[in-house]
Amino acid sequence: MSIERSSIVTFAGNPVTLIGSEIRVGENAPNFEVLANDLTKVTLEDSKGKVRIISCVPSLDTGVCDAQTREFNHMASNLGNDVEVLTISVDLPFAQKRWCGAAGIEQAQTLSDHFKMSFGTAYGTYIKEHRLECRAVFVVDEKDVVQYAEYVPEITEHPNYEAAMEAIKSVKIKN
């Protein structure tokens, strides 16, 4: 049974209903199952032992989602091998692969939640009205504890890149 919740998240100024529980700092990050661009299954457990930036976007084919994915890809190039960037959307894996090739994305892994909406339901990012993900960013440490969580209030706006980077630096300093 999934939880529906009203939120302060809007899409083009209109309130939306999110399915799933809101994730908070200090909680254990829930596992999920999404698809890589080659249709293999990917879970949070697959990157256990690394710090993860999980960048959630509605669709890579929009300007803000494109810019967000490029920004986290750029950030990842300076973070080392112990940090992994996962960008999750409901775009089909084939479209994600095509987009990554055209955009030159090499540091961030794009993953599709289209099939099961497993991530969206687990992280409370599933927009009921549109079957999309809301814009959100999570930083999960190597022990699977959420160190940063941002649900962007207006989906058409950018996340706070600086706050996410500070959370990553904070996690890396602890290690």
> Which band does the percent of strand residues land in?
25-35%
**Element order, helices and strands?**
EEEEEHEHEHEEEEH
Q: What structural category characterises the helix and strand content?
A: alpha+beta
How would a textbook summarize the main sheet? 5 strands, mixed
State the strand order across the main sheet.
7-6-5-10-11
Unreliable spans:
none
Q: What shape does the CA trace take? A: globular
Tell how many strands the DSSP assignment holds. 11
Per DSSP, the total helix count is: 4
In round numbers, the mean pLDDT is 92
Radius of gyration: 15 Å
Helix percentage range: 25-40%
What tags apply to this protein structure?
175 residues, alpha+beta, five-stranded mixed β-sheet, four-stranded antiparallel β-sheet, 4 helices, 11 strands, 30% strand
Descriptive report:
By secondary structure, this protein is an alpha+beta fold. Helix content is 26%, strand content 30%. The chain has a 5-stranded mixed β-sheet with strand order 7-6-5-10-11. β1 and β2 form a beta hairpin. The protein is globular, with a radius of gyration of 15 Å. The model has no long low-confidence stretch (mean pLDDT 92).
Give me the secondary-structure topology.
Layout: E1 4-11, E2 14-19, E3 33-35, E4 41-43, E5 51-56, H1 63-76, E6 83-89, H2 93-103, E7 108-112, H3 118-123, E8 126-127, E9 132-133, E10 136-140, E11 146-151, H4 161-174
Parallel strand pairs: 5-6, 6-7
Antiparallel strand pairs: 1-2, 2-8, 3-4, 5-10, 8-9, 10-11
